[in-house]
Design a protein that fits this description.
This protein is an alpha/beta fold. Helix content is 37%, strand content 20%. The chain has 2 domains: 306 residues, 3-Layer(aba) Sandwich (Aminopeptidase); 113 residues, Alpha-Beta Plaits (2-Layer Sandwich). The structure holds glyoxylic acid (GLV) and manganese (II) ion (2 copies). Belongs to the peptidase M20 family.
Length: 430
C-alpha cells in the first residue's frame, strides 16, 4: 500500500483514469432509456431508471464497493478505509435525467466516482477514511414538481408538504415512494448525524459555456445558485371563440402570455444588475386547449435562479406583484403554489482551496465559478464541507440530447476528483 504524507503532482499522476473504462461505463448507462422519449430519458421512479440503478449497483460491486440502498432510495457504495470508523469521505451525483435530456448530467459524477475507486484499488491506495460513492435518488425536478429527493432526505429537509406534492393524476410523491417500498415517515426522519461524513465532493459537467469559451479545464465551484419555483394558475372563463366579444373575454392564456414576458423582463433586469440571474417559464398548460374555445385556465411553471439571495427575494416579490396586476387587469383569479425553494449555497472555501491546489499539482488550468444549475451538493453542504468540480460542456449545451463532454475533458475531472479525495484523506478533513 502506498502512503503519501505529501502528494506531489507525480504521486497524484497515478490516479489518472482509464478513459476506455470510463467511456464504456457512460455508454452502458446510456443504454437505459425510456423508448417513449427522445434523447436520454431516465425519469425518477420510471422503469428505465429502476433498471439503470441495478446497473449502478452492479458497477459499484464490480469496483469493489459494499453496496446498500438507503431508506430514501439512495444507492451507496462504500470502500472501507484503514481507520475502520469515523467520518467517511463522500462523492457522487445522480443518474436520473430530465425528459429528452443528455448522457452526462449527473452520470459523469457517478461513473467518474466509480473510476476513482478503480484507480485507488489498482494503485493499492488504501484511504484512511471510508469512501462513500452515492447515486442520489431523483435529483432533477420530477413530475411531482420537486427535486433532489435523496439528498434532501440525507440533509433532513424532506417535509410532509414536500411529500404531499402531486403529479397530474393526483398521486402524491409520498404515495409513489411508498409504492416502491419506501416509508415516507422514515424518509422525513433519516437525516444523517453530523460528522457522518468529513467532506463531500461532486464532479459534474458545467452545463454552461464558460469553461469551453475561456479554454479552461476545471471549474472550481464557488456557489450553487438558489432557485425559487412557482406554479402560477390563471383562472378565467371558457367561452365560444366565435361569439364572445374581445372585450368580454376572461382569457387565461393571454394573461399567461403577459406573465411569460414579465418573467423574462425580471430575469433580464436581474442579469444586468447582478451578472448572474435567470428566469424561465419552462412549462405552460392550457385548458380546455381547443381551437374554438377561449382558454379558461393557464398554468405556468416558473423559476428564478441566482447565487444572490437578495435578488431572489426581490424577484420573487416582483413575480407576485406583476402576476397579481395581470390577473386584476384581466379580471382573472390567480393561484400561486410556491414549490420547494432552494437558497443559494456557497461551497466551503476550504474545499475550493483543496480542489484548486490539486488542479495546480496536476497541471490542469482552473477557474473559480458559480453554478447556475442546482445540485445534490446544495443539500449535502448542510452536512459537511462540500466542493464541486466542473468539466467543460460542448457549446454550453445541457438538458438536451446535444449535451456533450469529451472523454479527455471528463477524464481530467475524474483525475482531479481522485486526487482531491486522496489529499482530503491525507490531511484528515477539509
Ligand atoms: C438540475 O439540473 C437543475 O439545475 O434544475
Ligand atoms: Mn440536470
Ligand atoms: Mn445534475
Amino acid at each position: 500500500m502506498s502512503t503519501m504524507s505529501e502528494q506531489s503532482g507525480t504521486d497524484l499522476d497515478q490516479f489518472r483514469p482509464v478513459l476506455d473504462r470510463l467511456g464504456g461505463a457512460l455508454e452502458e448507462l446510456a443504454g437505459y432509456v425510456d423508448p417513449d422519449h427522445g434523447g436520454w430519458t431516465r425519469r425518477v421512479l420510471s422503469e428505465p431508471y429502476t433498471a439503470s440503478r441495478s446497473w449502478v449497483r452492479d458497477a459499484m460491486r464490480d469496483a469493489g464497493l459494499t453496496v446498500h440502498v438507503d431508506e430514501a432510495g439512495n444507492t451507496i457504495g462504500v470502500l472501507p478505509g484503514r481507520r475502520g470508523s469515523g467520518p467517511a469521505l463522500a462523492t457522487g451525483s445522480h443518474t436520473d435525467t430530465v425528459a429528452n435530456g443528455g448522457r452526462f448530467d449527473g452520470v459523469a459524477g457517478v461513473v467518474g466516482a466509480l473510476e476513482v475507486v478503480h484507480r485507488l484499488r489498482e494503485t493499492d491506495t488504501r484511504l484512511d477514511s471510508d469512501l462513500m460513492v452515492i447515486d442520489f435518488l431523483g435529483e432533477e425536478p420530477n413530475e411531482f414538481g420537486v427535486s433532489c429527493i435523496g439528498s434532501r432526505a440525507i440533509a433532513g429537509t424532506v417535509s410532509r408538504d414536500y411529500l404531499d406534492h402531486e403529479r397530474d393524476d393526483g398521486l402524491s410523491l409520498g404515495s409513489a415512494l411508498q409504492q416502491r417500498g419506501m416509508d415516507p415517515s422514515t424518509v422525513m426522519d433519516m437525516a444523517w448525524a453530523p460528522g457522518r461524513i468529513s467532506a463531500f465532493v461532486e464532479l459534474h459537467i458545467e452545463q454552461g459555456p464558460v469553461l469551453e469559451r475561456v479554454g479552461t479545464q476545471i471549474g472550481v465551484v464557488t456557489a450553487i445558485a438558489g432557485i425559487e419555483r412557482v406554479i402560477a394558475t390563471f383562472l378565467g372563463r371558457a367561452d365560444h371563440a366565435g361569439t364572445a366579444a374581445m372585450a368580454d373575454r376572461k382569457d387565461a392564456l393571454v394573461a399567461a402570455a403577459e406573465a411569460v414576458l414579465a418573467v423574462e423582463q425580471i430575469g433580464c433586469a436581474g442579469e444586468q444588475a447582478t451578472g448572474a440571474a435567470v428566469s424561465t417559464v419552462g412549462r405552460l398548460e392550457v385548458e380546455p386547449g381547443a381551437l374554438n374555445v377561449v382558454p379558461s385556465l393557464a398554468r405556468l411553471w416558473t423559476e428564478l435562479r441566482s447565487p444572490d439571495p437578495g435578488w431572489l427575494g426581490t424577484a420573487r416579490r416582483d413575480v407576485v406583484e406583476q402576476f397579481k396586476l395581470i390577473a386584476e387587469h384581466r379580471r382573472l383569479e390567480l393561484d400561486l403554489d410556491w414549490l420547494n425553494d432552494q437558497d443559494p449555497v456557497p461551497t466551503a472555501p476550504s474545499m475550493q482551496d483543496v480542489i484548486a491546489v490539486t488542479a495546480d499539482h496536476l497541471g490542469y488550468s482552473w477557474r473559480a465559478m458559480p453554478s447556475g444549475a442546482g445540485h445534490d451538493s446544495a443539500h449535502i453542504a448542510a452536512m459537511a464541507p462540500t466542493g464541486m468540480i466542473f468539466v467543460p460542456s460542448r457549446d454550453g449545451r445541457s438538458h438536451c440530447p446535444e449535451e456533450w463532454t469529451d472523454l479527455a475533458d471528463l477524464g481530467r475531472g475524474v483525475h482531479a476528483l481522485a486526487a482531491t479525495l486522496v489529499r482530503l484523506d491525507r490531511r484528515g478533513s477539509a
